[in-house]
Automatic annotation (TrEMBL), chain A:
It holds the Pfam family Ni_hydr_CYTB. This is Cytochrome b561 bacterial/Ni-hydrogenase domain-containing protein. Residues 6-138 form the Cytochrome b561 bacterial/Ni-hydrogenase domain. The chain crosses the membrane at residues 7-27, 47-65, 85-107, 113-137. One of its GO terms (biological process) is respiratory electron transport chain. Keywords: Cell membrane, Membrane, Transmembrane, Transmembrane helix. It is found in: Cell membrane. GO terms for molecular function: electron transfer activity. GO terms for cellular component: plasma membrane. It is a multi-pass membrane protein.
TrEMBL record, chain B:
The keyword Transmembrane applies. The chain crosses the membrane at residues 88-116. Keywords: Membrane, Transmembrane, Transmembrane helix. This is Uncharacterized protein.
Length: 154, 126
């Protein structure tokens, strides 16, 4: 199994956990997503956020190594890329991480910073979730089980 | 009407739709839960309450606002952390990891932002 494929699906799982726990905390309107258990949603969101940041770091280092080695091979499953949806994911991820870190670190010391970062984090979530749905729609052929493709090939 | 190529998407969507209906049904059937009447999200509420009178310099001066509230809330948090030692330890470890990884990510992102526009020409020519 390819490294970029594993990273892609790990990323998808972690993003889903973050989106669900984040939406559950976003407001009372969406609290039902996690049965109004905001405390658990907060812990889950923070733990998943660390994994998300770690995955981001791994993907960035992987991409840097590829560039430094002048690796020309196409990596269709790689989460970040210099154009298209890869670039969009890269930019939104950086904004998510920076605003998330601002909320995390300044929650107790500055309401201004927290409010500003939280507003961006919140609005970006809706944009990112909508884009993920569009991404799944566009790449839905990849959801087909590979065995079926092999059988058709015969 | 539906494109056959997109069938997996609609299958996945129907699975999620069933899950959402199940969670909603479970949520509404639980009498112990009290659904809040608030419709606004936490971010909208905070931005209405705080950002309305916040200036840009306030964003760069953490700790200058609502000092009394911060002091009292910090006191409360300290006591809470003592009670939940394991949670506090997890908080410290995850915060340390985040603070350690953040500068590396920003540096890596800067590197990619500089190098990414070049490789297309650079890789094709090699």
């Amino acid at each position: 199994m390819k490294f970029d494929f594993i990273l892609h699906w790990l990323w998808a799982i972690v993003f889903s956990i973050l989106a669900l726990s984040g939406i559950a905390m976003a407001g009372a309107k969406y609290g039902w997503v996690m049965q109004y258990d905001i405390a658990t949603a907060d812990i889950v969101h923070r733990l998943a956020a660390v994994v998300y940041v770690l995955l981001t770091l791994i993907i960035i280092i992987y991409e840097m190594i590829r560039i430094l080695r002048r690796d020309k091979t196409k990596k269709p499953w790689l989460v970040f890329g210099p154009s298209g949806y890869g670039l969009f994911t890269f930019i939104t991820t950086l904004i998510f991480i920076v605003t998330g870190a601002m909320i995390w670190l300044f929650m107790d010391s500055s309401h201004a910073v927290t409010a500003f970062a939280l507003w961006i984090h919140d609005k970006l979530t809706y944009l990112a979730v909508a884009s993920v749905i569009w991404h799944i729609y566009m790449k839905s052929h990849a959801l087909k089980w590979p065995k079926k493709k092999a059988q058709k090939g015969r | 009407m539906f494109n056959k190529q997109k069938r997996p998407f609609w299958q996945l969507s129907s699975v999620f739709a069933v899950l959402v209906i199940l969670v909603l049904a479970l949520s509404w059937s639980n009498p112990s839960e009290k659904v809040s009447q608030m419709d606004a999200s936490m971010a909208d509420m905070m931005s209405n309450e705080v950002l309305g009178y916040t200036t840009i310099p306030d964003l760069f001066n953490p700790g200058t606002m609502e000092s009394t509230e911060v002091l009292s809330s910090n006191g409360g948090h300290a006591g809470h952390h003592d009670q939940a030692g394991r949670l506090y330890a997890i908080h410290l470890i995850t915060t340390a990891l985040l603070v350690f990884m953040l500068p590396i990510i920003i540096a890596g992102a800067l590197f990619l932002a500089i190098v990414w526009p070049k490789p297309v020409k650079w890789r094709n020519s090699k």
